[in-house]
């Protein structure tokens, strides 16, 4: 066992003791792994997290996957058994890991605003800059969560928040990609980080995360629980949407509680049925893509997730799947914290909205790098 951070340790285990491993079929991961290899070798390596597992550590596994086509679920599992060693991520506070889920919404939009389509998706403004220790302004220097700010007339300040932008801060700058019918729909696309846009003429577009206004993400579900509006045991995306629909006069107040605001870029739609391209710059595979804390973990690494209480994604069976770390998110914080991508469209949203489950996280580390963690 090696200690790599104060709040978790990695515990070497065996595939034989990995409950659910022998029932999984990770065959679908190989095409995604080939895409990850092209991204690393042809574009640029992924950022290395604090666990110090790098793209270079990952490349032997990806190279072996390049020409491998599994003939059966057993052969797919045998590939990972041959090339990796499993390590359980154990939090030192004794708590288990935790998973939620996300999806790609389908949103009806117009390329021009009117009385119905009134709520825009914005591109990244040109006065939004990346912050680091060198340019972080006074007042934000103690909060490293602020990674974006506003450069205006030579001065760097915090960027206006959700309320200011909703009230028109960005109007007239030509940043709108498209307009939606519902402010709540736009908000939840911000939470998900991507969407398929369905235009009135039948065209399908795609938007994905480009940047944020810099403010810390504040969950409105937590706010509604604390106010006694929704019972903690009942919280879900569906429950939050239902509450907002019942309380239209309070929508702004609740949404503005989350000061974080997301900007988007238009993404190519080579295949509308393929998953969105997210932080790892490869298409997300439904049910097999995992968002992780990129400050700790590095994109492309395999994780086996076991969530015994999560049963609705696998027809009543406990969720036990090998996944690839391909995305991240403001709310995904910690070594054993993940967000499962359930796919695109309303059905995927129904599946994602109620996932809030304890889970075991096992990271598969390629053999050459695994020796550093004994």
Account of the 3D structure:
This protein has 374 residues and is α+β, with helices and mostly antiparallel strands. It folds into two domains: 8-101 and 274-371, RlpA-like domain (Barwin-like endoglucanases), CATH 2.40.40; 104-266, Ribosomal Protein L25, Chain P, CATH 2.40.240. The protein contains ten helices and 18 strands. It has a six-stranded mixed barrel with strand order 4-17-14-16-15-18. The protein has a six-stranded mixed beta sheet with strand order 6-10-5-11-12-13, with helices on one face. The chain has a three-stranded antiparallel beta sheet with strand order 7-8-9, with no helix packed on it. Helix 1 (29-43) packs across helix 2. The longest helix is centred in the N-terminal third of the chain and has 15 residues, at 29-43. The chain is globular, with a radius of gyration of 21 Å. The mean pLDDT is 93. Its EC number is 4.2.2.n1. This is peptidoglycan lytic exotransglycosylase. Residues 106-265 form the Lytic transglycosylase MltA domain. One of its GO terms (molecular function) is peptidoglycan lytic transglycosylase activity. One of its GO terms (cellular component) is outer membrane.
Topology readout:
Layout: E1 2-5, E2 8-12, H1 29-43, H2 55-66, H3 73-83, E3 84-91, E4 97-104, E5 106-110, E6 119-122, E7 128-130, E8 148-152, E9 155-157, H4 162-166, E10 176-180, H5 183-192, E11 194-199, E12 204-212, H6 220-226, H7 237-246, H8 251-257, E13 262-266, E14 289-291, E15 302-307, E16 319-327, E17 337-344, H9 346-352, E18 357-366, H10 367-370
Parallel strand pairs: 4-17, 5-11, 14-16
Antiparallel strand pairs: 1-2, 2-3, 3-18, 4-18, 5-10, 6-10, 7-8, 8-9, 11-12, 12-13, 14-17, 15-16, 15-18
Helix pairs in contact: 1-2
């Amino acid at each position: 066992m090696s200690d790599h951070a104060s709040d978790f340790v990695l515990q070497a285990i065996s595939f034989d003791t990995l409950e659910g491993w022998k029932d999984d079929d990770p065959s679908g991961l190989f095409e995604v792994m080939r895409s990850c290899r092209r991204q690393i070798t042809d574009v640029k390596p992924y950022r290395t997290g604090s666990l110090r597992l790098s793209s270079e550590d990952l490349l032997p596994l990806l190279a072996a996957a390049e020409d491998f086509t599994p003939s059966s679920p057993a052969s797919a599992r045998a590939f990972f058994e041959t090339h990796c060693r499993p390590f359980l991520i154990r939090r030192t506070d004794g708590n288990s890991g935790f998973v939620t889920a996300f999806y790609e919404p389908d949103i009806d939009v117009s390329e021009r605003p009117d009385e119905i389509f009134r709520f825009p998706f914005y591109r990244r403004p040109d006065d939004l800059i990346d912050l680091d220790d060198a340019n972080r302004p006074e007042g934000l220097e103690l909060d490293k969560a602020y990674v974006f700010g506003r450069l205006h007339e030579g001065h760097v300040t915090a960027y206006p928040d959700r309320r200011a932008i909703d009230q028109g801060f960005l109007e007239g700058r030509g940043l709108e990609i498209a307009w939606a019918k519902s402010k709540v729909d736009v908000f939840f696309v911000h939470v998900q980080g991507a969407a398929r846009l369905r235009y009135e003429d039948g065209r399908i577009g795609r938007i994905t995360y480009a940047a944020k206004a810099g403010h810390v993400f504040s969950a409105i579900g937590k706010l509604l629980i604390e106010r006694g509006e929704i019972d903690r045991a009942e919280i879900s995306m569906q429950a939050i949407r239902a509450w907002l629909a019942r309380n239209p006069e309070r929508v702004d107040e609740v949404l503005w509680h989350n000061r974080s605001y997301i900007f988007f870029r238009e993404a190519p739609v080579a295949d509308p049925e393929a998953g969105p391209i997210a932080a790892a710059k490869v298409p997300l595979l439904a049910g097999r893509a995992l968002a992780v804390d990129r400050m700790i973990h590095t994109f492309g690494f395999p994780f086996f997730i076991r969530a015994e209480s999560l049963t609705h994604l696998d027809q009543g069976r406990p969720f036990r799947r090998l996944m690839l770390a391909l995305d991240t998110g403001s709310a995904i914080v910690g070594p054993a914290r993940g967000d499962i991508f359930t796919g695109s469209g309303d059905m995927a949203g129904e599946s994602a909205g109620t996932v809030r489950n304890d889970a075991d996280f096992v990271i598969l580390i390629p053999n050459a790098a695994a020796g550093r963690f004994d």
